[in-house]
Amino acid sequence: MPLLSRHRRYMGAMIAGIFALLLASNLIPDPLGRFTWRTALRPELGYAHMVEVAFRNLGEFMQDNFGFRASLPVLRRELREDLASPDTRPIYEGRTGQLFWGRENTPEQSAGALVRVPGVRRFAEMIGEMNAILAARGAKLVVALPPNAQSVDLEGLPEWHDRLAYKTTEYDLMLGAMKALGVTAVDLRAALRQTPYPRYLLTDTHWNFRSSVAGFNAAVTAAGHSEWALDLSRAIGDRRPIASGDLLRSMRMPPEIQDHNYLLNVPMRKSSLDPRLPHHNVFGPFASKVFPFGGGGPRVLVMGDSFSALVWPRLFMNSNVSEVGWMHASRYVLGSCDFNFDNILRFKPDLVIYARGERFFTCAPHAWPRNLPRPDAALRAKVEAAVPDLR
């Protein structure tokens, strides 16, 4: 008499087969994997650099391209569609096919349906305190926040967005507060809307190279250095097809939308880690870096995020700056207002461009930069008057 009944033997074989398939999947390339590295390998920096980057990112590469990580969510989506049970996802499509990010209150923030007055006030207090300290040291502070795609690519938004009619947004309150505090700020929404559509990538949360250069030009012009601005007709080349962006990849769909970006006719520039600008962001690719230019002009520090990290430090090619430093404006990728202010003072910049993306610019209730003094009563009163309660 067998120890196990027939149906249990079949079930055991099936379970063993499933486990064997799962183990084998770690060696079988995912048919929907893109086989790209999260941190790009840069041959121009040498073989040793590529080996070091590949070794550091090997685990993420395996996760992305093996184990059916890309295929299983697509299979799940197709199955739910066949069962008439549509999937929900944090991404929505506009009237031109452009994809938009729907989490972190992004649509509500851009439309003005969500206005977090305390967070805007706390941001204004932080910038006001920074401006006072930097000005006393002879440095200038410029605020240039890269907008959400929903704040700029209005032509691509879905039709339901046309029915939203909120007068004031957090970005508007921020600009009003900067004016009241005497801090130089530029509205990059208006600057980008003057350029042709699309200003952002169709399958990605980030702007295209043309908008990146246009935003840079607006920022340095506001800083009083219009001579540093680049000629768009020369800095930007033709559009060309590119791989799908982070929005399409996060949907785990096979490429169905062909995206394009412009050629950036700006040379790469070597950077280095510098003890004057310590790395503070927990995400390795957002390491603080210094780019030497060798001019006799000012030292510039860009405080930003992924919108500026790979491009803006390279765009000072028409300037006479001596150095350009770049640091993430937060300790955490999704955080805000939690950097170390001493890192700024240690670098001794003559110009600071604060360019945190619109989605994360408001300060969380308990967020405040390390080693930045708290605002006094006079500054708090001025900010409260400049940022009214909209309730």
> What distance lies between the first and last C-alpha atoms, to the nearest angstrom?
78 Å
Mean pLDDT: 89
Rg, alpha carbons: 24 Å
| Class by SSE composition | alpha/beta
Structure summary:
Helix content is 34%, strand content 12%. The chain is of the alpha/beta class. Strand 1 (91-93) and strand 2 (99-101) form a beta hairpin.
List the helices and strands and how they pair.
Layout: H1 6-25, H2 47-56, H3 58-65, H4 71-82, E1 91-93, E2 99-101, H5 106-111, H6 117-136, E3 140-143, H7 170-181, E4 184-185, H8 188-193, H9 209-222, H10 232-235, E5 236-242, H11 246-250, E6 259-264, E7 289-292, E8 299-304, E9 323-328, H12 341-347, E10 351-354, H13 377-386
Parallel strand pairs: 3-4, 3-10, 8-9, 8-10
Antiparallel strand pairs: 1-2, 5-6, 7-9
Helix pairs in contact: 6-7, 6-13, 7-13
List keywords for this structure.
single chain, 391 residues, alpha/beta, 6-stranded mixed sheet, two-stranded antiparallel sheet, 13 helices, globular
Question: How would you characterize this protein structure?
Answer:
- α6 (117-136) runs parallel beside α7 and α7 (170-181) crosses α13 (377-386).
- This protein has helices at 6-25, 47-56, 58-65, 71-82, 106-111, 117-136, 170-181, 188-193, 209-222, 232-235, 246-250, 341-347, 377-386, and strands spanning 91-93, 99-101, 140-143, 184-185, 236-242, 259-264, 289-292, 299-304, 323-328, 351-354.
- A six-stranded mixed beta sheet has the order 4-3-10-8-9-7, sandwiched between helices.
- The chain is globular and about 85 Å long.
- It is an alpha/beta fold.
- A hairpin with a 5-residue loop joins β1 and β2 (99-101).
